[in-house]
Amino acid sequence: MTEDKKTHRLVKTPQISSRYLADYMAASEIGKRNILTACKYQAIARIVQHDEAKQTISKFFRSENPLVTDLDDAAKHLRARMADGDFDRDVYDHNADYIDRFSKVVHIVELPNDAAILAPGQSPKIDIGGVKVSADIQFRLRRITKTNKVKIGAAVFRYAKGKPLKPEIASWQSAFLLAYLADTALELDAEPEAKLCVTIDMYSGKTCPAPTDSVSRFKNMQAACAAIAERWDNIKPPANSVL
Description:
Structural class: alpha+beta
Strand content: 15-25%
Order of helices and strands: EEHHEHHHEEEEEHEEH
Shape: globular
Low-confidence stretches: none
Number of helices: 7
Helix content: 40-55%
Number of strands: 10
Largest sheet: 5 strands, mixed
Distance between the termini: 17 Å
Mean pLDDT: 95
């Protein structure tokens, strides 16, 4: 008798990414259930990630003289890179698609002119209502006001091939960023600012700063996370999964 090959890994304690949390806040009840199932029972199968594309675009924003041709060249290099197998080929091509798409809409992106764009640095997880939440920050923003106050922010990239990000999801993502920076306090006496906490849709180029109701949105996220923590142990595994 052969042992069934494992298909999923069990995450015993409540955890969610800020991306999934934003999706969760805007999802239907069925969508929420599917998100939590994916968070608790993580598929073991290799998944194409866009890490290289995100790093390339982050460096583009932080460069002194960013040129769209630099993005085009990076995509071409990925397509020409030798791959060890079909999966690696898919990873390179999908990352190239990501960069190519963004190079077409980069002119639409709106960021504050008076803010410096800095490296992302460390992004520790924070506890919200008993759930560990991770933040996928791609770069940070910092400006000094006329009264010498330091204002900070950060950017998150969102990308789905073939479709723009829903504005409501972007608003939840940016509202989380504003609260996240207040919680982590990486710079002494610096205050997070709503217009510097942005979600950038890499498909459409639209930039969504933290909305005016971010404080109430975060309270709703806290309540949602408390409910997630309570139901975590009762979340059922996917059909036909092997743990």
